[in-house]
Amino acid sequence: MKYLHRSGVRGWIKGVLFRGMPGMINCVEFEEFVLSYLDGELPARQLKVFERHMRLCRECREYLAAYRLSSELSCAVLGTPQESVPEDVPEDLIKAILDARQY
Amino acid sequence: MPTKSPKSEPGLSTPPPNHEALEAEVLVRDNISWMLALAQRILRDQALAEDAVQNAFIAGLRGLPTFEGRSSVKTWLHRITVNECLMKLRKQKQLNEKPIDEYLPEFDRHNCRIEAPWPVLSRAEDFLESERTRALVAEKISVLPGTYRIVLQLRDIEGYSTDEVAELLEISPGNVKVRLHRARAALKKLLEPVLRGEVHR
Ligand SMILES: [Zn+2]
User: CA angle B171-B107-A9, nearest 5°?
Assistant: First the structure.
């Protein structure tokens, strides 16, 4: 609760700051750039604006760090099959495939 | 007098049937392990994965005579396998549109992000050391609707480009990007208790 209240006042200040200054984006716009940023596809000018927002905005900076970390974890886990695939070549499956193949 | 059968066209050698069968067996033996692993990653089910791989080989072996090295055999089989897996997911209605709004980032009315402060984050390796954490991560990933998980899987794990994923899933590249970003954002939210150390590793 305390945190949300503080965010209310700070949000207002930041809202004014990010809206009123040239070369600034707000957090919603930052969010839209995240994927291109991580893909290295942001043009130089937008990259500058994106990185400036990241320096000034604690929320977006920490959000992005957690986003990257969770992506890394999910890649590591998704990359390994849940049940390990049997090491041995599955002879019965090979036979079924070769039997089913049509000329 | 030349016959009309394409098999005896001049310049085309016709391998004896047992040569062809041998060739098929070599192809299957050389590729079945990685294809099973791939299908298992996408389908998360051993029986379904075996079925998909069998279908992939049958389609693949049928196409083999016309396959002229447009890409490597492996790339070609990879794509056939993914397509067979996608067909299975579609049949199970796992690729249907489902909302994930509840897991997406929140903003206040000034367009400012609402994000509780984070402690210093541990490195990915530290999390991955623990079997329990890996299981938790897998559990959270399974909460993602299939339509988002598959984009994450194909682009981030299987190494397909945005355009290739778009083609495989028959959606626009823009849509792929939106889904990928939402999938990652939702995962971040789902994994928060783990990342914040609120769950015992
Ligand atoms: Zn921000």
Answer: 165
Task: Give me the mean pLDDT over the A82-90 stretch.
Answer: 63
Residue B101 C-alpha to ligand 1 middle, in angstroms? 19
Low-confidence ranges of chain B (pLDDT < 70): 1-17, 64-71, 200-201
Q: How far is the CA of B141 from the centre of ligand 1 (A)?
A: 26
Alpha-carbon dihedral B78, B79, B80, B83, rounded to 10 degrees: 120
A33 in B contact zone (CB under 8 Å): no
Give domain status of residue B10, yes or no. no
Tens digits of per-residue pLDDT, B173-201? 999 999 999 999 999 999 999 999 887 65
The alpha-helical segments, DSSP class H, found in chain A are 2-20, 27-38, 44-56, 58-78, 91-100
Give the CA-trace dihedral at B19, B24, B25, B29, to 10 degrees.
140
B41 shares a domain with B84: yes
Residues B163 and B188 in one domain: yes
For residue B192, how many other CB atoms are within 10 A of its CB? 17
Any chain B CB within 8 A of the CB of A42? no
Q: Is the CB of B53 less than 8 angstroms away from the CB of A62? A: no
Number of domains observed in the structure of chain A: 1
Domain around A32: 2-74
Q: Which residues in chain B have their CB less than 8 angstroms from residue A30's CB?
A: 113
Q: How far apart are the first and last CA of chain A?
A: 70
User: Are B169 and B84 contained in the same domain?
Assistant: no
CATH of the domain at B121: 1.10.10.10
Q: What is the DSSP letter of B113?
A: E
Does some domain include residue B158?
yes
Domain span including residue B164: 101-195
Our CA-based measurement puts residue A41 at a distance from the nearest CA of chain B, in whole angstroms, of: 12
Closest residue in chain A to residue B61, using alpha carbons only: A101
